[in-house]
């Protein structure tokens, strides 16, 4: 069946009218059989894909069965070198679940989410998500927070965070959200450890090679792959962005000058940070990591609402010996799941999220 015949058949079946144009384009290009999906589920997923994930891997897949979404981890999208125990993998999927739940609430629906996290393996369903109807009023403001949240890797203004902003963030969960001003002794420890961990990781050939797999040197990949890290997302514009697209590739991203430049930027980033948010979990069990991933996305959405710029920095939690020492250094007894740079900025964000199509996450 060619594209014209396909469109004709779909129009006859009444499917085309409920599908956004970009999904339709992807469906016909990929030649996957078209699945008729409930329009509310489509809408919820369209927001869900805006969730944050390590290296923008978007390691989630879903199966749709009537009014149920079954969520899986996409094992092709793991990061075995920086994340050998799948901690960040689960945190990313959990942020996706939180985003879906938020979107459903914002469009006036309620979801029942059941996690199955005893074991995490390639083909195992991790979450069963059922729509529970309850059409209530919708909130456009909440939906735009999901779309407008973004990771800001640029330098922030010098200065303290507003006390009220920190209180608002900590009110999300007083037990698990901690804040350290950059000027405090513990804030200084985080800054120092971040530079040490970032430098160590950049000089680790396997980890740098793994990262470079997700660095995008071809503009066309925005449409083609819809994942990974583009220069705009890393805070590069103008000449540096031109240089990135013109002269760099996967191989040179593993070379000395690229690595040196990355370390230089990381030093500037911590210098231009007002404070660090540290998110802990109640235990190291998968179910607690899941709760932490959800809390993380709640905190990022709150930051977006309060115009607080944020940048998750995971190197301390990925590198030895920093990851073993950080809890003691900060006097925190619980497992640390996230460290996030915070601050304010007058600079623009990088623009629209780069994401895969809904079609490519449906199995
Ligand atoms: C578990 C996890 C760990 C992350 N670690 C880092 C990190 O170490 N450095 C960084 O720049 N961004 C980190 N991020 C942010 C992602 O890179 C970011 O969410 C992704 O590139 C998508 O971009 P967006 O947040 O602007 O939508 C992390 C995100 C998650 C969920």
Automatic annotation (TrEMBL):
One of its GO terms (molecular function) is oxidoreductase activity. This is Nitroreductase domain-containing protein.
């Amino acid at each position: 069946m060619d594209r014209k015949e396909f469109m004709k058949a779909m129009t006859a079946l009444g499917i085309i009218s409920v599908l956004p144009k970009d999904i339709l384009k992807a469906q016909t290009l990929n030649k996957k059989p078209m699945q008729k999906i409930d329009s509310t589920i489509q809408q919820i997923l369209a927001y869900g894909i805006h969730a944050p994930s390590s290296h923008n891997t978007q390691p989630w897949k879903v199966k749709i069965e009537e009014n149920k979404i079954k969520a899986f981890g996409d094992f092709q999208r793991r990061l075995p070198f920086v994340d050998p125990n799948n901690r960040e993998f689960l945190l990313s999927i959990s942020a996706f679940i939180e985003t879906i739940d938020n979107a459903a609430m914002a469009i006036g629906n309620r979801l029942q989410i059941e996690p199955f996290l005893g074991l995490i393996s390639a083909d195992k369903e991790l979450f069963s998500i059922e729509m529970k109807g309850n059409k209530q009023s919708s909130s456009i403001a909440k939906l735009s927070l999901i779309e407008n949240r973004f990771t800001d890797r640029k330098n922030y203004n010098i200065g303290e965070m507003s006390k009220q902003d920190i209180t608002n963030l900590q009110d999300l969960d007083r037990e698990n959200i901690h804040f350290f001003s950059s000027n405090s002794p513990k804030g200084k420890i985080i800054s120092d450890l971040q530079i040490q961990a970032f430098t160590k990781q950049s000089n680790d050939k396997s980890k740098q090679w793994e990262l470079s797999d997700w660095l995008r040197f071809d503009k066309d990949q925005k449409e083609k792959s819809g994942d990974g890290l583009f220069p705009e997302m890393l805070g590069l514009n103008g000449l540096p962005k031109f240089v990135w697209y013109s002269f760099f590739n996967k191989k040179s991203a593993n070379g000395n000058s690229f690595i040196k430049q990355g370390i230089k930027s990381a030093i500037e980033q911590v210098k231009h940070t007002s404070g660090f948010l540290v998110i802990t979990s109640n235990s190291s069990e998968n179910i607690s990591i899941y709760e932490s991933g959800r809390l993380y996305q709640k905190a990022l959405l709150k930051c977006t609402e309060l115009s607080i710029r944020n940048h998750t920095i995971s190197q301390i939690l990925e590198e030895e010996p920093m990851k073993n020492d950080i809890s003691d250094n900060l006097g925190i007894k619980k497992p640390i799941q996230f460290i996030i740079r915070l601050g304010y900025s007058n600079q623009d964000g990088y623009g629209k999220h780069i994401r895969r199509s809904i079609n490519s996450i449906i199995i």
